[in-house]
Amino acid sequence: MRINHQQITQGTLETPDLNHPGALLQPQLGAPSPVRPTLLTLGILALPLLALSGCLNETVISSKTANSSASTSDSTSTTSATTQAAATTTTTTSTSVPSGARAVKIIFKQSSSSGSFDSAPSTGTINNPGNGHQAQRVFNADGSLLASGGPTSSNWPKWFSGFEIGISGTSNAGAKNSDCARFAATGESADTECQYDDAGNGSPTAGVFTDCGGPDGYLRVSEYDCTKSSSIALQGNGGPTDGVYLRATFNRSSTYLGSSENILVVLEYAASSLNNAASDPSNCFQSGTFTPTREGCADQLWQIFMKHTAYEVVQPYLMLAPPSTHVVDRKNGHFGGSAGSKQFILPLSGDSDLSVLQVSRIRGPKNLETPTSTGATESTDAFTMFCAKSGDPGESANSAGCVGMVFYSMTFIRM
């Protein structure tokens, strides 16, 4: 139903529509009028206004009451949600990481301020933990000197307990030939000459030789001298008596290494082989198990072990070689000297007792292929023909670039 009344606005009477919201609350202003309202008129108009005022007040009060209830409800809901969130909050405890050097680098050179080792003993090292050739200097990741004087020096990183390597010689029951595993002598890289098959007929080309020694000063392993001598290096297993190895030891005290820390290892090396990978992979399996020590699988085998102590014998963690970083190109007279790198994680945080990393030579060549060309016999295998120094099997070959390993550096980075 439409109700009309007159509204006074500075002497102008407007007729608002009460069915339109806010009609009374928003009066329309008009031009002044000479008509002046009387008291009777004001009284008559006041009655419906008072009535409407009461309605409006009830509406406002109801609105405020509703808003108050909603606010109380929201407050209750918020309090409930906050209480629930507090009840389900998980407390996370932060683990502090000990201070100290974040990386340690071993450089496999001797008798040099830029290398980690002093001169190695001429008779080799005893093949027992703690009797290897110890690193005396460690470097930052960029190659700058970090500490010298060995593990007992005051500035040595306390989390890195030490690093030792196996040097072959008469004192080493696991590798007695002094030319098997040692640092390359000055001029060795040019003095060692392998006789490859430049003619491509399966036999060495007479009078044509290629340098195949390890780079001067670096740690190298010449498989010809490890396996073709009267004192053949024993097969390793990653245990304490391996003759040719690299071994790092870590201090697992939480004062030096955090319980959540792991170690990233970056190894720079060159692994050279005379033969390509096995054309028939079945040669590398025995009873369904991968067995790289089998004949015809690889020219040499190196494996990586993670251990609780140096005396422990465990299954290998990773395989270093095969694969090789380079295979000899006999026909074109190129030796295997290309360097590569392997990166891997030591998951120390998963086992608080893991403290030793060992890289071991497991074995060298076994009955490498026998050439069928003219002049080849069962006793003259490819290994002897191509890796011997100047084709003379009676001499020490020092031919790490034919079949063997050269180690450049090993970096340990805390993560």
Structural write-up:
With about 425 residues, the chain is an alpha+beta fold. It has four helices and 21 strands. It has two domains: about 5-75, no CATH class; about 105-415, no CATH class. The strands form six sheets. Strands 3, 8, 11, 13, 18, 19 and 21 form a seven-stranded mixed β-sheet that branches. The protein has a six-stranded antiparallel β-sheet with strand order 4-7-12-20-16-17, with no helix packed on it. Strands 1-2 form a two-stranded antiparallel sheet.
Task: Provide a concise account of the structure shown.
The chain is of the alpha+beta class and 415 residues long.
Mean pLDDT: 79
In terms of DSSP E residues, the strand content is: 15-25%
Shape: globular
Distance between the termini: 82 Å
Output the structural class.
alpha+beta
The low-pLDDT segments are: 1-66, 68-73, 367-380
Q: How many strands appear in the DSSP assignment?
A: 21
Individual helix count: 4
Q: Helical content, roughly?
A: 10-25%
Q: Element order, helices and strands?
A: EEHEEEEEEHEEEHEEEEEEEEEHE
Major beta sheet summary: 7 strands, mixed
- Rg computed from alpha carbons, rounded to a whole number of angstroms: 43 Å
Number of domain units: 2
List the helices and strands and how they pair.
Elements: E1 7-9, E2 12-14, H1 39-88, E3 103-107, E4 133-134, E5 137-139, E6 145-148, E7 160-165, E8 181-183, H2 188-191, E9 193-194, E10 210-211, E11 219-222, H3 223-227, E12 245-250, E13 263-273, E14 285-286, E15 289-290, E16 301-307, E17 318-321, E18 326-327, E19 340-346, E20 356-363, H4 382-387, E21 404-414
Parallel strand pairs: 13-18
Antiparallel strand pairs: 1-2, 3-21, 4-7, 5-6, 7-12, 8-11, 9-10, 11-21, 12-20, 13-19, 13-21, 14-15, 16-17, 16-20
